[in-house]
Design a protein that fits this description.
The complex is a heterodimer. Chain A is mainly beta. Chain A has six helices and 61 strands. Chain A has a 15-stranded mixed sheet that branches. Chain A is globular, with a radius of gyration of 32 Å. By secondary structure, chain B is mainly beta. Chain B contains three helices and 21 strands. In chain B, the strands form four sheets. A seven-stranded antiparallel sheet of chain B has the order 2-1-7-20-21-6-3. In chain B, strands 8, 11, 12, 14, 15, 16 and 18 form a seven-stranded antiparallel sheet that branches. In chain B, strands 9-10-19-13-17 form a five-stranded antiparallel sheet, with no helix packed on it. In chain B, a hairpin with a 5-residue loop joins strand 4 and strand 5. The longest helix of chain B has 12 residues. Chain B is globular, with a radius of gyration of 21 Å. Chain B starts with a strand and ends with a strand. The chains are: A mainly beta, B mainly beta. Chains A and B meet through strand 1, strand 7, strand 8, strand 39 and strand 61 of A and strand 4, strand 5 and strand 8 of B.
Chain lengths: 919, 289
């Protein structure tokens, strides 16, 4: 259910309802058409002033303390005032045109709220929420050619604060007087097409808005059809793109506390159809999945392997892949990589980083993978010692504790007087204090000269700074921590103001602490800190290390607001599989959801959600009664919807022995002082690809490295070339880019040269070969458990009683590269079997008085005990709703939780076992 | 009764309606039959009027006035309908001080915050408007019957030669205030051109006080007029409540009655028949947009 104001919840069930709907289409771009200057304050405060006639002057400054967009915002320091104070800018306007002023406002606890205003014209609504960025907007009609706009407050005490960011002022059309009807259709496209009513699949939403009539405030047009007529040069939208524009639909009621609406759709316009004869316009829009059409790219990540001498067992819950893909489309369950980020590991089901390189990772029990648990935003690493009470069915992977090491990207972090470092992560602080390192940032542990910085916990957050391997730690003690069994944002912003001081700003959630500087030994050399190491790690999520310094760095991320909500996947992967070249991000995410029968999609407010098939509301969210709301339904029970034998193929992968995974088939030439790029495409996913390319010695390459040989002529004659330079970059899981630079004043040919001592049989043979470990698909023998059957590469479950009664009804689930684990596949087979082994009626066209709080996947009770006898909990799998001449109607498709009269755990009157119980 | 119809700034006086006037209030929405046998009613948006004006034996000249409106000589519309049979020209939620919607649409203010409250006990309806002016940064703090930008949607059109009167009931729940009722003149684009204030009075926490301004001739350039109340210098602690706003044509204020607004209408149909040469039996149908 969508959270709604209490008065709206009351109004929904009234016999007489005054329904309201609003459609907002922003035909203008908040960027290209923005009339407000310097709207994100990234480059300063020019164009903005705190001086305004009749008001007390406020102090404006560019702020790095927080930002909604980019890394800067406008910080406003209020004066003591009883006549008001403001922060304003001037916009150029067309008299008579409507405009919408928008901005994000942050007001900390204890500070006065502000409101948008147009000077000497109109004031807007004061924001009413502290400690988060709040959208504040004001719509006004411009009487003049320019106006002073901004945010103001009536009274303040000197030193009180507010922040402003992401300001826009663009033309606006009020669609309210034009709205004829609005329809929102939201449904699940089941991944199993012949089985209707299963609450899994990809969630899609579409809206159709009918506009008609005249808006007296709409200039240059008499009807909305003329306003949106693409041939009307007088239209405000003349020569403007009408597709891809943000559109939201809100539906609600007039209540005792005024008009209350909730968002029912957020998306982008897809088509605009104008009927000039009828004077009507039809606008359709689709949800934000439209933004995820770009091709997906995935790195090679192995859940568990021994690569070289390292135990690389970061785990690979499919949530990590889903999150990685969504982040490519700007949809985030953890903060984006910050500027100058050198290590970013979301830890959303894998310790594989998105920036940096994983050296090793494992559970504290040798040979196991890192374990995960629900974190602050999505999955985070799990440490049993500090979070022992987490139920075992809430854990994913192994469960003891974890260690890992990453190499940062670039050349590492240095400690000069102009250098800096930010470490941040969300960490679970148990109910009682612990003494534990969070992580260490250090020079290459294998090198002799080391410096490092250790961030650790005791009763306080502490940073230990070491300048040499043998030197003593200089400890900077930060704030005392609150151990409360919850996740907290912890960060340390480190700098070295002089060669003998270390300066640390600690951040715990929303509070910064700057203790005294530490005095360190003067550094004679600054060995770059290239590695980040976690030993016996805590429960942790969204780890980032950057090289930013306070003066130019961004604000802390403790105010992060996610744009996706991800449940753990029920798929544990061996490796990121090979995906089709050009496959869209959204299609790839849907393929994962389909593989495990999950739900993925964008919900009403535009947030992306991923729900695994185990999700079900414990208690019904609402009872829909025949007395108040239910006006009809149709029930269908089909014997052909039964499936009593389920087969789920497994696409297992196996890591083969390391060796050459690719070799050039033809002679590759590189011109004099030229660079050439070759794309190597592997037959299967490859891990541990050697990016170091050495000359292949006599007898072949035995150093586990990629290699080449080269000569001056294509037939191998003319002399040996040994100084070619290579840069190897992975392109997804199954390809790599090999850039070859020839520094010589003559061409080079990648062939085995003659006369260099190599076997004559190899003379002139193309020689460029890449070293790595291939992953190949294997068939997995699966014990089919209860069925007692075994099938190679297929998990199978069957219900014999149902087969005896109705005959065998087989469901062959399509194969998927994302289902790599026999246990996961068998669990899916069992879950599907429990749903499908018997006929359960599907209730369609469940017509109810519209309820704007109902969402797909909600568990509600349909109650008509004295009429049809229906009194059952159901799960909503499709919603079609319309506000128009026929009022506010909703047509639901629902799936019964249990067969009519069947046993339902925890449902009063149906959960008691007895002689007549029907399971 | 007299009816005025036309585009704002060019209101026409229609021929005197001789054969009555039909006015229907239409509810957009539905009556839904429930499985229990009961019903549920949804109303969408506000009630919209359908108006039919009927004349008998009017002259060619008078009929020409009606025909001119239909043929678009005065522009495509929508037109504003001012029906003198309706006393209070303010929209329902303004006249009844938020009782209809329980929110502050379409009210506006120059300074401070508005809200819809139910205490003290309203004089009429279920709610009253509460205003915390806070401060008057420059000039007076004002509450307008319609927020800027909504004048074209709700404001009363200027009818040449007529005067306007306005009254409102006020009291405070915190502090005292010296206040005045005001009639504002607006341009076609909604720019405030000038205003005329009534006598000031001290408003306190005791009984309701009715402020008024009467017989105001709008600014010569005005297209619309609208009501407001002002406080010359606010303080942060004042909380002012108001109810029963009344705006009428002419210089005399009757007792408060519910507001019906001045609807924006489109001409739906004009029918004509000729009972005698030079005479017309006409019917003009209007639909509120």
């Amino acid at each position: 259910m969508i959270s709604a104001h209490a008065d709206l919840v009351t109004a929904i069930d009234l016999a007489e309802r005054h329904v309201t709907a609003a459609v907002d289409i922003n035909w203008w771009s908040d960027d290209a058409d923005n009339l407000a200057s310097n709207s994100s304050f990234e480059t300063g405060t020019s164009g903005w002033t705190g001086v305004l006639s009749g008001f007390t002057t406020s102090t404006l400054a560019q702020s790095a303390t927080r930002s909604y967009f980019g890394t800067r915002s406008l910080g406003v320091t209020w004066p003591t005032t009883s006549v008001g104070s403001a922060a304003t800018t001037v916009v150029t306007t067309t008299p008579g045109q409507q405009y919408r002023l928008r901005g994000r406002i942050f007001v900390p606890t204890g500070q006065p709220f502000v409101a948008p205003f147009v000077f000497f014209l109109i004031g807007g609504t004061f924001i009413s929420t502290h400690d988060q960025w709040v959208l504040s907007e004001l719509i006004f009609t411009a009487p003049n050619t320019s106006h002073t706009v901004g945010w103001y407050l009536p009274t303040a005490t000197s030193g009180q604060l507010a922040w402003i960011d992401d300001v826009s002022c663009v033309p606006y059309v009020d669609h309210a007087p034009l709205l004829g009807s609005v329809n929102v259709s939201r449904s699940l496209s089941a991944s199993l097409p012949d089985i209707a009513g299963i609450a899994v699949g990809d969630l899609s939403a579409e809206t159709t808005v009918e506009l008609a009539g005249v808006n007296p405030a709409l200039p240059n047009s008499s009807t909305v059809a003329q306003a949106l007529d693409p041939f009307n040069s007088d239209s405000l939208l003349w020569r403007r793109d009408r597709s891809g524009r943000p559109l939201t639909v809100e539906i609600g009621m007039l209540t005792d506390s005024g008009e209350r609406r909730v968002t029912r759709f957020t998306g982008l316009t897809r088509s605009v159809s104008v009927d000039l004869a009828q004077g009507t316009v039809q606008v359709t829009a689709l949800d934000y999945a439209e933004l995820l059409r770009a091709p997906a790219t995935l790195p090679t990540v192995v859940g568990s392997a021994t690569i070289g001498a390292q135990s690389v067992r970061p785990g690979l819950n499919a949530q990590w892949v889903i999150d990685y893909l969504l982040r490519q489309g700007g949809v985030n369950a953890a903060p984006r990589e910050r500027p100058s980020c050198v290590l970013s590991a979301t830890l959303h089901g894998s310790a594989a980083p998105e920036t940096g390189t994983l050296v090793y990772a494992y559970d504290s029990t040798a040979g196991n993978t890192v374990g995960y648990v629900q974190g602050a935003w999505a999955l985070g690493t799990y440490d049993k010692a500090t979070a022992p009470d987490v139920p075992i069915d809430s854990r994913y992977g192994e469960h003891t504790g974890w260690s890992a090491q990453w190499q940062v990207s670039g050349n590492g972090l240095t400690s000069g007087t102009s250098d800096g470092m930010l470490i941040q992560a969300w960490v679970y602080l148990p109910a009682t204090s612990v003494t534990r390192d969070i992580l260490t940032v250090e020079s290459d542990p294998l090198s002799g000269s080391r410096q490092k910085l250790v961030l650790r916990l005791t009763t306080a957050l502490i940073a230990d700074c070491y300048t040499t391997a043998a030197g003593a730690a200089v400890t900077v003690t930060g704030p005392t921590l609150t151990y409360d069994g919850a996740w907290h944002y912890l960060a340390a912003l480190v700098s070295w103001p002089t060669s003998t001081t270390v300066h640390v700003v600690f951040r715990v959630d929303g509070t910064s602490t700057t203790p005294g500087d530490g005095t360190v030994t003067a550094r004679t050399t600054q060995t770059a800190m290239t590695h980040v190491t976690v030993t016996s790690g805590l429960c942790m999520e969204a780890l980032q290390v950057t090289s930013e310094i306070a003066a130019s760095g961004g604000p802390f991320d403790n105010e992060f607001v996610p744009t996706s909500t991800l449940e753990p996947s029920l798929l544990e992967l061996t490796v990121t599989p090979q995906i089709d070249s050009g496959a869209a991000i959204w299609d790839t995410v849907k393929a994962i959801a389909e593989a495990e029968s999950a739900v993925v999609g964008f919900i009403e407010d535009g947030t992306a959600v991923y729900r695994n098939r185990r999700t079900a509301a414990a208690a019904p969210a609402r009872t829909i009664t025949a007395e108040r709301s239910l006006s009809g339904f149709r029930t269908t029970e089909r014997v052909d919807s039964i499936r009593n034998r389920i087969r789920v193929p497994v696409s297992g992968y196996s890591l083969r022995a390391a060796g050459f995974v690719w070799a050039a088939a033809d002679v590759i030439s590189v011109g004099s002082r030229a660079t050439r790029t070759v794309i190597a495409e592997f037959d299967s996913p490859v891990v541990g690809l050697s990016t170091t390319v050495v000359v292949v010695p006599i007898g072949g390459n035995t150093t586990s490295r990629s290699g080449y040989r080269a000569a001056r002529r294509p037939d191998g004659t003319g002399g040996t070339v040994t100084n070619l330079q290579f840069t190897v970059t992975s392109l997804g899981t199954s390809a790599a880019s090999i850039q070859i630079r020839n520094p010589n004043g003559f061409p080079a040919y990648l062939v085995s040269p003659t006369g260099a001592g190599y076997p004559s049989t190899s003379d002139g043979t193309p020689t460029l070969e890449m070293w790595g470990q291939p992953l190949t698909t294997v068939s997995t023998d699966v014990d089919a458990g209860a069925t007692g059957l075994a099938n190679s590469g297929v998990a199978e479950a069957l219900w014999q009683d149902s087969i005896d009664l109705r005959g065998e009804q087989l469901l062959d689930v399509p194969a998927s590269v994302w289902r790599q684990n026999a246990d996961d596949s068998y669990a899916l087979a069992l879950d599907l079997l429990s749903l499908l082994h018997r006929p359960i009626p599907i209730l369609e066209q469940v017509e109810i008085a519209g309820d704007p709080t109902i969402q797909l996947g909600d568990r509600v009770v349909l109650s008509d005990p004295r009429g049809t006898g229906l009194d059952d909990p159901v799960i909503v799998v499709a919603i079609d709703e319309t506000v128009g001449d026929s009022g506010y109607t909703q047509s639901l498709t629902v799936r019964l939780v249990a067969p009519p009269g069947g046993w339902i755990l925890g449902y009063s009157g149906r959960s008691e076992l007895g002689l007549t119980t029907r399971l | 009764m007299t009816v005025y119809l036309g585009p704002p700034g060019r209101m026409l006086t229609l021929p005197a309606v001789q054969q009555g006037q039909d006015v229907g209030l239409d509810r957009a929405g539905s009556v839904r039959r429930l499985l229990s046998g009961g019903t549920a009613v949804d109303t969408i948006g506000s009630l919209h009027r359908s108006v039919s004006l009927n004349w008998s034996h009017i002259t060619d000249a008078n009929f020409a006035t009606l025909e001119a409106l239909v043929t678009g000589i005065y522009g495509p519309g929508p037109y504003v309908l001012v029906d003198t049979a309706r006393v209070n020209l303010l929209p329902p939620n303004v006249a009844a001080a938020t009782s209809v919607r329980a929110d502050t649409y379409p009210w506006g203010t120059s300074t401070g915050a508005l809200s819809s409250v139910s205490t003290p006990t309203p004089l009429a309806g279920r709610r009253i408007l509460s205003w915390t002016p806070g401060t008057a940064a420059a000039g007076n703090a004002t509450v307008y019957g319609y927020a800027f930008g909504l004048a074209q949607v709700f404001a009363v059109p200027v009818i040449s030669g007529l005067t306007y009167s306005f009254s409102a009931s006020l009291r405070t729940t915190t502090g005292t205030a010296t206040m005045a009722a005001r009639i504002d003149s607006y341009s076609a684009s909604g720019v405030l051109l000038s205003n005329s204030s009534g006598s000031t009075a001290a408003i306190g926490t005791g009984a309701w006080t009715t402020l008024s301004v009467t017989g105001v001739s709008p600014n010569a350039a005005a297209v619309y007029v609208g009501p407001s109340v002002e406080v010359p210098a606010g303080t942060t602690t004042q909380v002012i409540v108001t109810d029963q706003w009344l705006m009428v044509l002419g210089g005399t204020l009757p007792a408060w009655t519910r507001g019906t607004g001045v609807p924006r209408v489109m001409v739906d149909q004009l029918t004509d028949s000729y009972p005698l040469r030079g005479r017309h039996n006409a019917s003009l149908s209007l639909t509120e947009v």
